[in-house]
Amino acid sequence: MNGFKSNSLGEIEECSEKPSLQDNGNIYTATSNEFFTDEMLQSENSGLAGRVQDLERKVLTQQDEIVCLRSTLADVLRRLNLIEGNIDRGSANLHGGRSAPNTPSRTSTPSFNRVTSQSPTLNSSSSTISNSTTSDWKLRKPAPRATNSPADLQQRRSTPIGQGLSQSRSKSIHHSNGSLHSDSPSSSSVSPAPSPSPRPTSAHASLQKKWSSTSDFSVQSSLQGRLSTKSMLNLNTKSIIGHVLKHGTHTCSFNEDDGSMKFYLRGRPIVLHAPTDVRDSFEIAKVQPAPSKKLKLDWVYGYRGRDCRSNLYQLPTGEMAYFVAAVVVLYNVDEQSQRHYVGHTDDIKSLSVHPNKLLVATGQAAGKEASVSFNLIQLTQSSTNNDSYLQPHIRLWNSVSLATVAIIGNGEFSGPVNALSFSRADGGVLLAAIEDSPDKIISVWEIRGDRGQRITETRCSVDTIVCVEFHPLDRNQLVTAGKNHLAFWTLDQNGTLYKRMGVFEGREKPKYVTCIAFTQSGDVISGDSNGNVIVWGRGTNIITRFFKKVHDGSIFSLCALKDGRLASGGGKDGRIVLFDVDMNPTSVEMEVEPHFGAVRVIAEGKGSQFLIGTTRNCIMTGSFDLGLSPVIMGHTDEVWGLAVHPNLPQFVTGGRDRLLQLWDSLSHSVVWSKDIGEQIQSCAFSTDGELVAVGTVLGKWMVFDTLTRELLAQYMDGQEPIQTIKFSPDGNLLAIGSRDNFIYIYQVGSKRLSKIGRCSGHSSFVTHLDWSEDSHQLRSNSGDYEVLYWNAELCRQITSPTTLRDVKWASQTCSISFQTVGVWPENADGSDVNSVGRSSDGSLLVSGDDWGKIKLYAYPTSQPKSLAHTYGGHSSHVTGVEFMQDDARIISIGGNDTSVMQWTVC
Question: Most buried in the list 396, 422, 614, 895, measured by CB within 10 Å?
Fold first, then answer.
C-alpha cells in the first residue's frame, strides 16, 4: 500500500514503499504520517463543528420565520372574525335586531376553524407540540346549537336583566336581607339575570342559598369545556374567570313611619333617611336589577418594571406583551390599540412566550379574594382541592384568542411564581418555574393537553433567584441566576435535576448574577451586579471570556439579537451597549434619561428597534440610530389621587411617588407629569377646570395651574393626610377633609384662597365629601361610618338630617348614604368599599373595593338586594373610581398595583 511522507518543502507527497519497523527512515515516515493524519482530522472536525453551528443557526432562523407566519395568520384570522362580527351586528341593528332579509340567521359570531386534524395542539400522548401548515384554514359557520347544551345556558345568561328578573321574582332564592352581585369574566361580560335555582343535590345542598341562578351551576361544565380545548388557535374560547356570586346579606330594616332605613357596618347601626318621593313606595325586599349598560376594559396605563424582570416581549403580530396589576397587555403601538388577558386574580409576577409565539405562560402571586371565590371553587373543583383562583399558579393562554388553555400548579406553589421559561430545543414541551418561597423551589412541568404534569422539583438556592432559562440548543439544560450564584442544571431521563455551580476561577464573585442570555453557538452569557459581562463555554461551567465593568452598577438585562449581536443594559448609568457578533463591546450606545428610570428589560422589537422597560414603570421604543422615546408611562408607588376634568376628556392622578400626572383619555397619553416633592393623597379640579388642588400625606395642600403646571399657592392644615378635597359646584368654596377629623372650608378668590373656618364633629378621620347642588351644604363620611351634614358657609353641623332628605347632591362620592346601601357586602367592616362615583346623568353608580373589583350598579342603589356587573383587573385595593365628563368612560386607580385603568361604558 502507498504511504505519505514530507518533502523538503514541507509538502505531503505520496511514497510507494511500505513503512518498515526495521528502517529508521520508514519509522520516521510512519510517525509523520500519523501526525499529519491527526492534524487533518482535527482540521476536519473543526470545520464540521462550524458547519453544524451554521446549520443550527439556519434552522433557528427558518423556525422563527415559520412561527412568524403562523402567528401572523392567526392574528389575521382573529381580525377577520372581529370584522365579520361587527358587520353582523351592524346588519342586525339595521333590521331591528333581526337577520337581514334573504340571509340565514346566525346564533353567534362565525369562527375560523381547522378542517383537518393537524392543528397546533398540545399532544398529551407524545407530550410534544405538533407543527401545522397554514394553507388549510377555512371559514365556516358554527353548527346549530343543541338543546340544553352549555351554549344554551350561556345564551340564557345573556338574557336581559329586567326580563330575567320579572320571570324569577317570585322564586324563593331572593331573600329579604340579601345583596346580589355578579362577577363578570372580562370587560365585555354581562351579569346574568336571576333565575330559578335547580333542586340541590346532597353535595350542593349547603350552598343552595349562596347561588342565584342556573347559570351559576353551569360554571363547572363551562369551565371544563374551556379547559378541555387543545387548540391553541381556538378563536371562540374566552377567558375562564366568569362566575356569578351572591355577595352576602345585610340585616336591614325600614321604618315606614319616618321613612328611615337602618343597617349595620361592623356592628355599628347606621340610620339613613329616604327622599320624600320614594319613602312611601319603598320596598326593602325588592331586588334592584343590574343596569343594562356594561363596562369594557379599554386601556391600561402603566407597566410593572420596578420589581419584575423578563416581562416585555415583541410578538409576531406586532404587539408588545407585558403586564401590570392582574392584567397582561398586548399593545400595538402602530395601531394604538390594546387587548387584555384578565384571567389572573392577583399580581402577575412572571411571563414567558412559547417558542411558537402563540402561547403565553404567566405566573401570579396568591389571590386575596377568598371570600368572593370560595363558592365558585366548591362548584368547579372535580376531585381534588382546585383553588387555583386563590393560590399561586401559572396560566397558559392563547395570545390570539386570549383563551385560557391550562391552569398549572393548582395549589402546588407556596410562593409567587417569579420566573418562567419554556424549553426551546424540543419545541416548548417543558416549562420551568421558580417560586419565591423560603426554599426557593425550581420545578419543571411537562405540558400535556389542557394541564401540566410536574416532572420534578428541587430546592434551588437559599438566596433570591431572579431568572431561569432553558438552553436554546441543548435539550434538558437549564441555567438559573440570582444572589451569590449562577447554576447550570441538567435534567436526566429519570426526571432528576443535577446542578453545577459556575466557577469564577479567582475572579471577584459578584453579589448578584442578574441576567442570562445565549450566543448563537450556545455559549451562556451572564451579567452581574458588578457591571461585568461573562461568557461561559457551552456545556461547561468555566469562564471563557470576561468583560470587566462594562456598566457602572448592575446589568439588569442582556438581549441576544437575531443577527448574533448582543445588547446589555445597565442600571445606574442608564446605558445600553452593543456587542458585535464576536462578542466584543463596540462604541455604539444609547442612553435612557434618568427621570425614566434605569434599564430593567431589553427586548428586540420590529426591525432594528428595541423595547426598553425601566425601573420607573416606563416602556420606551427606539434604536441606536434614532434614540429612545416613551410609549408607556406610569406611577411607581401607590396611587391615591384621582380627579376628572369637568369639561375635557382628561383626568389627573397622583401617588406616593410624588408624581402628579395629567392624562388624555382619547390619545391614552400623558399630557404632562410633575414631581411636586410631596406624597399625594387626593386631587380635585376646579369647576372650570383651570385649577387642580392636590392634598398630600403631611397636611400640606397645593393649587396648580392645569395649563402651565405652575404652583399657584400652598397651604397647611394639620399634620395628617388630606383624605379628600373638593370644589363647590359654583366654584366659590373649597372643602378639605383631613385625617385629623376636621373639614376645612376655604373661600376661592381671584388670586388666593382664604380660610373661612373648620367643621368639627367627626370622631374619626374624614373619608369622603359631597357638595349640594346649591353649594350651601356638605355631607361627609368618616372612618367610623358616620354620616354628618354641614352648613358650609357657617362651618356648623346640621343636627337634623331629616331636613336634608330631599337635598340634591352635586356628586356621589360618599359610600355611606341612602343611595348606596346596596354596594355593601355581608359582614362589611366599612373599609371594603373604598370609592364610589355617580354618572352625571344619574343613572349609574360605580364602586371600587378592597378586592380589586370594579362594580357597576343602577343608580340609586338603595335596595339591600342590588345586582351589579363586576369586573377584575386590579390586583390591589381600588383607591379611586370616577366617571369621565361625558359618562362614556370610567377611570379607576389601584393602590399598590400602581395601575390606572380606563373602562368604556357600553
Answer: 614
